[in-house]
Amino acid sequence: MSDYLRVIKAAEIPSPGKQLVEVGDRLVALFHVDDQFYALDDVCTHDGGPLAEGELDAGHCTIACPRHGAKFDIRTGAALTMPATQATMSHSVKVEAGWVYVRLAD
Amino acid sequence: MSTATSSGITAAAFEAFLAARREPKWLLERRRAAWQLFEELPMPSRKDEEWMRTDIRLFHFDRFHLPIETGATGEVQPGLLTEGVKLAGQTIAVDSWPRSARLDPKWVAQGVLFGSLDEMVSAHGALLQPHLMTKAFSARYDKFAALHAACWSGGMVLYVPKGVVIDQPLHSLTAISPRGVDFSHTLVILEEGAEATLLSETAGGEDAEPSLHCGAIELLLAPEARLRYVNLQNWGKGTWHFAHQKALVDRDASLQWTISALGSRLAKVNQHVALVGPGASTQVNGVIFTEDKQHLCYNTHQHHVAPHCQSDLLYKGALQDHSRLVWRGMIKVDRDAQKTNGYQRNDNLVLSDTARSDSIPGLEIEADDVRCTHGSTAGRVDDEQIFYARCRGLTRNEAVRMIVAGFFQQVFDRITIESVREALGHAIGRRIREYD
User: Fold this and answer.
1) Could you tell me what percentage of chain A is helix, strand and coil, using 3-state DSSP and rounding each to the nearest 5?
2) Which DSSP state fits B51?
3) Nearest chain A Cα to B295, which residue?
4) Sign of CA dihedral B45, B46, B49, B50
5) pLDDT, tens digit, 9 for 90 and up, residues A50-85
6) Residue A45: exposed, middle, or buried by beta-carbon count in 10 A (0-12, 13-18, 19+)?
7) 3-state DSSP call for residue B319?
8) What is the DSSP letter of B192?
9) pLDDT, chain B, mean
10) How do beta strands B371-380 and A71-73 pair?
């Protein structure tokens, strides 16, 4: 398991809001909902669409892929609707001293 | 020797690059026009069909530099393709700069040219100028093509005069050092009735440091020429590989083009064969193995321009770990290309749950008297085959290796050069994980 990497100031992402960030050699979609931060690979498991460009439903904690509408749970990465059937990778997040840190899952 | 150290791919670095090269005026003008194109063209968008499945958002031009002579003298690891092969000639280049070139004097005496394009373009400009990036390669294709046209360096040229048949293979080895770049351009010109075999390979070792290849290949076959061309991409796992490759095959000429891809972090390759004279034929073979987090994308294009031509493409790929392989193939038949016989097939063997292959064949046919077929398969290793092999005393790992070897055998059978078959078979065998 990799270490936590400092990514962005927490204040730079409104709540609710989302931001695409580079973490190591990965592109990660960061979500800020109700003072909680979540991180997913910026990859729809259906055909590789960029999740950070999709529509965030803060009430249900879901993100919809902008290509075909597959929805994912931003808290776990679970695929919730077709055409995606597999979860996208979810990463651990913590906030310290006003900064968001992400630890890549692999 | 230049000691320029301009970092980033910027206008200032481009000017320093030009100043260090001392090239003829016609070439400088072409480079400047291409640089302007590079600055004007947008980065490819993931909304473009061609780039939809290939994510280059982590690629940044400012993290690389233009090819400059570094004076590096480190040892170049030997290639894989030439074991036991007697060569007619060989070129070696490192970081887009020629290291060595030799050609058997008997071919020199017959007018064959083989060596660094950098050196040949100055010495034989009148011969090469009409061919270099004027017929096959287009700088306008995309931003990477424009960058290559502006900043190509090193590379290799093979020119075979009319009727000359080179009966021993030629070999070209290109290497990148850690954090290096390669902008090599390959130009092959076979005049009428000429024949040659060219083995070309890249090497980056086990290195995972970032590096960049932005290259191009042009194969120009005059009527009745015959070329066997093998191109092995074996960069290290940190290399970004962007390549535009195109062949023009004229009347009754024949091209056998074998590509193999084992290396790179991300590869985006356009391989295009245009059959421009009646009776031209091409056989295209692909052998691809991906692992770790590699992403390899191959766009193949069989363009039937003239009638009575034949094209036959077979790409086979195996994937493991979290890797991804994208193949998009197109057979395009023009209105005048009657009596075309076109075939394309892509088979992929997925060895792990987390690997993914995308295989997208296509036909675009404007003529009405043609035979064009295509096919695509993707699947896992068959458990029944594993069971069958284990019943005969093999372990699971031995069974998987045997099945993978058998999977590639169909394309190996089409490769007529024994050293290439053996090298690719061994290289793939070494990469297969232990599967429990």
Assistant:
1) 5, 45, 50
2) G
3) A48
4) positive
5) 999 999 999 999 999 999 999 999 999 999 999 999
6) buried
7) strand
8) T
9) 93
10) unpaired
B436 vs B429: CA distance, rounded Å:
17
The CA distance from B110 to B103, in Å, is 11
d(CA B411, CA B185): 27
Average pLDDT of span A28-54: 95
Chain A residues near residue B358 by CB distance under 8 angstroms: 47
Size of interface A-B (CB pairs under 8 A): 16
Q: Judge if ipTM > 0.90.
A: no
Nearest to B223 by CA among B254, B246, B201, B247: B254
Query: From the centroid of its chain, how far is CA B63?
Result: 24
pLDDT for residue B2 is more than 50: no
CB B420 within 8 A of CB B199: yes
Q: Quick one: tokens of A25?
A: 């050699």
Burial class (CB in 10 A: 0-12, 13-18, 19+), A87: middle
Phi then psi for B42, rounded to 5 degrees? -80, 160
Q: Which of A2, A19, A41, A47 is the mutation pick for testing B, counting most B CBs within 10 A?
A: A47
Q: Please give the helix or strand (H or E) that residue B227 lies within, else none.
A: strand B226-233
